[in-house]
Amino acid sequence: MSLAQQWRDARPKVAGLHFDSGACSRQSFAVIDATATHARHEAEVGGYVAADAAAPVLDAGRAAVAALTGLAASDVIYTSGSGHALELLLGSWVGERTLACLPGEFGPNLAIMAANGFQVRALPVDSDGRLVVDDAARALAADPPALVHLTALASQRGVAQPLAEIVAVCRAEGIPIVVDAAQALGHLDCNVEPDAVYSSSRKWIAGPRGVGVLAIRPELASRLEPPVPPADWGVPMSVLEKLAQGEHNEAARIGYSVALGEHLAAGPEAVRARLAEVGRLSRQVLADTSGWRVVEPADEPTAITTLEPTDGADPVSVRAWLIAERGIVTTACELARAPFEMTKPVLRISPHVDTTAEDLDQFAGALRDASNR
Ligand SMILES: *Cc1c(COP(=O)(O)O)cnc(C)c1O
Question: Which SUPFAM superfamilies match (predicted)?
Answer without folding.
Answer: PLP-dependent transferases (SSF53383)
